[in-house]
Amino acid sequence: MKTARGVSPASGASDMAHIVLTFDDNRLAAALFGKFDENVALIEQKLGVDARARGNQLELRGDPTACEQARRALDLLYERLQSGNDIQVSDVEGAIRMAVAQDDQLVLPTLEKKGRMALAQIGTRRKTIHARTPTQDAYIRAMERAELVFGVGPAGTGKTYLAVAYAAQLLERGQVERIILSRPAVEAGERLGFLPGDMKEKVDPYLRPLYDALYDMMPAEKVERALAAGAIEVAPLAFMRGRTLANAAVILDEAQNTTTMQMKMFLTRLGENARMVVTGDPSQIDLPPGQKSGLVEALRVLDGVGGIVTVRFEAKDVVRHRLVQAIVEAYEADVSARLTGADGQAQ
């Protein structure tokens, strides 16, 4: 924790702030600053402050709001280190986003006071995942309180990853008896019969992202045992018909590629003591031309229905490689340009 903190106007500039942070653990301070102070440099770049590390101290100078945002981000990262978690560049970027967003939105009840952030997190035996954007924070809290959650938005925002992490947490805590993960195998279509192997081997390539997330949350041997025992089931959407999914955490991924009837079928599988999360990106629909997306229809039909929460991610929520955000934004700008003429009228 920090043992001292001073705040004063910078000399000769009443509109500038000067904050001195002192960390009582030199080892954690070094980890916080990063190799060659790379984390400090990133904070400087993103927030436009002057940050200088000396031993276990860090001086911040600049715009008062930016300095306060930097302090909040450093608070969050240092607490994460104190909890035994490592921090990566992506964690630093996430902490900065959260600190900036706190000034852009109303303070959540869980935040208690303006100067301290209490971010939503998911804890599994293998790792603890912290929200890296305000939308991720809202998504995790939505999964905690609602029985049916839609996570909608572009690739790289953590929709599926966080949903699988939350399902793993529920299973480890004994709050559900099983996890059921599903995706529509749209790309396979009628060609499934020509792929080698049994049905599981035919559809596994389409479910691989769900497997990857599972193995990231739980030890491999535990995942294998759970799969063998049926406590974790990974199956294509077609296998859901006629079932009632009770005492389970149920996830439908790539839901933009469901038809209206498939989506209705899946949603009506919800049973007692079950949590269901539906994720998808309406901008990446692979259905045949003219076929309506079940996800798009569901979002329209179920809008306003009590007990259902929809969380919408945007390009700014992308937490993969920084280029992914730029790519998503470029495609969104291109679509907008094609839909709108030079005179500002939709074409």
Q: Could you report the average pLDDT, rounded to the nearest whole number?
A: 81
Number of domains: 2
> How big is the Rg?
23 Å
Q: CATH class of the largest domain, please?
A: Alpha Beta
CATH architecture call of the largest domain: 3-Layer(aba) Sandwich
Report, as a whole number of angstroms, the end-to-end distance.
Answer: 57 Å
Q: What string gives the helices and strands in order?
A: EEHHEEHHEEHEHEHHEEHEHEH
Helix share bin:
40-55%
CATH topology name of the largest domain, in short, is Rossmann fold
Largest β sheet strand count, sense and barrel closure: 6 strands, parallel
Contiguous uncertain segments of 5+ residues: 3-7, 9-13, 106-115, 188-192
Could you name the CATH homologous superfamily of the largest domain? Answer: P-loop containing nucleotide triphosphate hydrolases
Bin the strand percentage: 15-25%
What global shape is seen?
A: globular
What structural class is derived from the secondary structure elements?
A: alpha/beta
Assembly type of the chains comes to single chain
Give the number of DSSP strands: 12
Spatial order of strands in the largest sheet:
9-8-10-11-7-12
Write structural notes for this entry.
This protein has 347 residues and is α/β, with parallel strands linked by helices. The protein has two domains: 2-111, Ribosomal Protein S8, Chain: A, domain 1 (2-Layer Sandwich), CATH 3.30.1370; 121-339, Rossmann fold (3-Layer(aba) Sandwich), CATH 3.40.50.300. It has eleven helices and twelve strands. It has helices at residues 26-33, 38-47, 64-82, 89-104, 134-145, 159-172, 199-217, 220-229, 260-267, 294-301, 322-339; strands at residues 2-10, 13-23, 50-54, 57-62, 121-123, 128-130, 148-152, 178-183, 232-236, 248-252, 275-280, 308-312. The chain has a six-stranded parallel beta sheet with strand order 9-8-10-11-7-12. A hairpin with a 2-residue loop joins strand 1 (2-10) and strand 2. The longest helix is centred in the N-terminal third of the chain and has 19 residues, at 64-82. The chain is globular and about 65 Å long. Mean pLDDT is 81; it is low at 3-7, 9-13, 106-115 and 188-192.
